[in-house]
Amino acid sequence: MSVDFLHPGEGAAIDRDVPALELRGIDKRFPGVVALDNVDFTLEGGKIHALMGENGAGKSTLIKIMAGVYGKDAGTIRMRGREVDIKSPRDSLKEGIKVVFQEIALISEFTVAENIFLEGYPTGKGGSIDWKKIRADSAALFNRIGFNVDPAARTGSLPVSQQQMVEIARALAHEARVVVMDEPTSSLTPNEVSLLFTVIRRLAALGIAVVYVSHKLDEVFEIADTVTVLRDGRHISTRPIGEHTNDTLIQDMIGRRIDNLFPRKRGAPGSKVALFVEKLSTAKKLNDVSFEARAGEVLGFFGLMGAGRTELAKAIVGYDPIASGTITVDGSRLVPHDTRTGVGLGIGLLTEDRKSEGLMGELPVYQNASLASLGAFARMGFVDKAREHRAVQDYVDRFRIKTPSLFQQVKNLSGGNQQKVLIARWLMRGLKVIVVDEPTRGIDVGAKSEIFALIDRLAGEGLAVVMMTSEMPELLGLADRIAVMCEGRLTAIMSRDEATQENILNAAIG
């Protein structure tokens, strides 16, 4: 396999007249669903092209057609003006298209160099694998993108940001002309995002067409040259990013204006302490954490990756064991320290990973929503289904959960509607404190606005909302007070007026 690919300043000519990749009239249908309807998508070499849309807009389907995971039902695909037929991932890679999916596809037990040349190892005399050349070529690829990763390191030992660099180096090893980045910053710290953007810009300087898929508007405005918006499987717009504002981009994505992304319809929180945490420590992460959350308040927690936000969320609801400290909910101690006691006292957790830790995807909406409160519908040891369905339907109506029926499998709902089902689960149980960990992760901007409004509404109804987030805009937009963590410690608690990005980040790095 050759790695003699475009070097900056060494004749990396970009033919501006011929698109690097051109998709025309692409259709894709699944049983009962039109995923893509006559979609056009054109990429220029040396440009960063954002692909945006709500969940279900068709982004993933379009990416998978480019990657050869799905075959198109109609339309044409051209690479540098030549019509191609992509029927498999091997075809896609052969044509110079590399997709870095959100779930990174590397073999964790292999070394970095072994993963980069997985599809074809260089051989030496006698046909044996030339391991020295593999490592040297890998180092040269990392040098080309300006990022240092040890080629001999075991891939599974690397942080997500470095695993992404391995995928990018792998793309260069295959002489990729198109690199697709699917939600690449979902698990990265701000510093890692900055490094990734540096590498993406370097890929563009090498003449590669980069597709950047993200729900994060601030990132798209920072990194993209052009943005294409899909909605309901149709192409809505393709415009230079400079022609967009936040409002116009959101309007293209959801088909309506959102006048206030962070609504605030409640007054100032009261003085009643709903949650009191004192000198809380765990065996591995948390160290002497103390704070209080008041009824009617949104208390936001911020920290860089590894700061301990999720560990704190799980500890204060009784999910993870603690080494020392006390947790008091509405005046009652969380003793014994377990989730059964926590729920009984009125504290619940909206987990960061809703698919593996929150939802039961194969079960219908009504069973997911009523799970924490089945006892309220029981008579003589049997669940009164009629009462259960009426109660769930009330929350479906109240939260505007979009589902064909209560019997729809919850895995078929959009991310935003899944999140609403989980919120309904806890409110049906009756809470005084709700802890929400990354409440908008993987959710499109239209659904985000609804989740933000719902969080504001919950606080307005008297709940204490403890919100863990890595998203600075929602932290500043929703929280009454902001607590900042660094390496398992609480480094600052500041009021809404005191909180600035600079103050928060300074506290987050200790």
Number of helices: 17
Structural class: alpha/beta
Radius of gyration: 25 Å
- Remind me, CATH topology of the largest domain? Rossmann fold
**Terminus-to-terminus distance:** 46 Å
Q: Mind describing the biggest β-sheet?
A: 6 strands, mixed
Mean pLDDT: 85
- Strand residue content: 15-25%
The total strand number stands at 22
Helical coverage, percent range? 25-40%
| Strand order within the widest beta sheet | 6-7-8-3-9-10
CATH class of the largest domain: Alpha Beta
Regarding quaternary structure, what we see is single chain
The global form is globular
CATH superfamily of the largest domain: P-loop containing nucleotide triphosphate hydrolases
Number of domains: 2
The CATH architecture of the largest domain comes to 3-Layer(aba) Sandwich
Low-confidence stretches: 1-13
GO molecular function: ATP binding; ATP hydrolysis activity
Family: Belongs to the ABC transporter superfamily.
Membrane topology: Peripheral membrane protein
Pfam families: ABC_tran
Question: What would a concise description of this structure say?
Answer:
It is a peripheral membrane protein. The chain is α/β, with parallel strands linked by helices and 510 residues long. The protein folds into two domains: 21-254, P-loop containing nucleotide triphosphate hydrolases (Rossmann fold, 3-Layer(aba) Sandwich); 273-360 and 431-508, Rossmann fold (3-Layer(aba) Sandwich), CATH 3.40.50.300.
